[in-house]
Every structure is written in C-alpha cells, then in structure tokens.
Design a protein that fits this description.
By secondary structure, this protein is of the alpha+beta class. The chain is 23% helix and 38% strand. The protein contains four helices and eight strands, in the order ββααβββαβαββ.
C-alpha cells in the first residue's frame, strides 16, 4: 500500500526497512518526548520492529498501519508515521496517529504533513469517525501540529509517561470526521 502527498511518498514498512526503522527508534533526540525510551541495540528492537510489519495491506500486530515516509524530491527517508485502530465497527471507529521525523527534516512542515496524511487515511480509507493524538506535555511542537490539524484538546493526563527515571504529563487531542476538511 502506498500513499502520496505533494512532497512525500508513504509505504508500509517492509522487512528490508529495518535500518530505517532503527534509525528513528534508536535516536535519542527523536525519542526525547516519545512514550518509550530509545533502543540501544538492533537485537533489542527487532521484536518491536516485527510487530509493525503489515502484510497484504492489513493492520499489523499492533492493529496499526505503520508507514515509512520518503521525500519525493530525492527519495530521502523522512520518518515514521502510523495510525493505530482502537475500535472499528460498521458506523466508524477511533484511531490514534503517531509520527517521528528525522532531525534533518525538522522545521520544514513535514511532521504536519505526515500527521495530516495519517488522519486523512483514518477518515477516508478506514472510515473512522474520530482520530486522536497524544504528546508529552513538554513537547510544544507536537502539540502545535495537532492544533494545525484542527484537533481539539480533550484531556490533560498527569504523570502518565515514565521515562528516564521521571514521570511526565500528557496532552490528548482529537478530531471528528465531520470536522475534518473535505477534499
């Protein structure tokens, strides 16, 4: 399965993408605000990576679609984005988007593009009625992305993310299908 936007091509992660996946989840700067710590070895991350692989355009073991994102301009690996399905039925469902960007692409609008693509995929392809996202309360850039997408802050969870020996708060945002711009 491939998706495409003006600047980015997205495809589901494949086995041969292990090094790309590892480059995201082992990078201390990228993982600074993530809900998990960075991985320190390829052996440690391999089971985590395998859970993100999808087959035959169906959700993976995490009930998500995980995409590798590449620049259309020069085919450079930009980052990781996914949408995890929390619930799904004949009237819709709920999903949560996530996104990680390689540092050399920070500050160029790519994270907003990746996040928007995942929300659009959730509404248009999966027929969800709601898409949400969460971020570490200290990650103001990620919060700004959710706001740019038109998401509404729905919650503030105190001390729910344990990382590097301390607890951090989390912000929760969401948007409904009827609030999402029509293409």
């Amino acid at each position: 399965m491939e998706l495409s936007t003006q600047r980015v091509v997205y495809r589901l992660f494949q086995r041969e993408d292990f090094k790309l996946f590892y480059s995201i989840f082992s990078n201390k700067d990228i993982m600074r605000y993530a809900w998990i710590d960075e991985f320190n070895s390829e052996e440690e991350i391999l089971p985590f990576f395998e859970d993100f692989l999808s087959f035959e355009d169906k959700p993976n073991k995490n009930n998500s679609y995980a995409f590798a994102a590449f620049s259309k301009q020069n085919n450079s690996f930009i980052g990781f984005c996914d949408i995890q399905i929390h619930s799904l039925n004949e009237t819709g469902g709920c999903g949560e988007i996530g996104y990680f960007l390689m540092p050399e692409f920070w500050g160029m609008g790519y994270a907003t593009e990746l996040a928007g693509t995942m929300a659009n995929f959730g509404f248009r392809h999966l027929k969800l009625h709601k898409v949400c996202a969460r971020c570490n309360a200290n990650n103001l850039k990620s919060e700004k992305i959710m706001q740019k997408l038109g998401m509404t802050r729905e919650g503030y969870l105190r001390k729910v993310r344990y990382k590097h020996g301390s607890w951090d708060d989390e912000k929760v945002y969401g948007i409904l299908r009827e609030e999402w711009p029509v293409e």
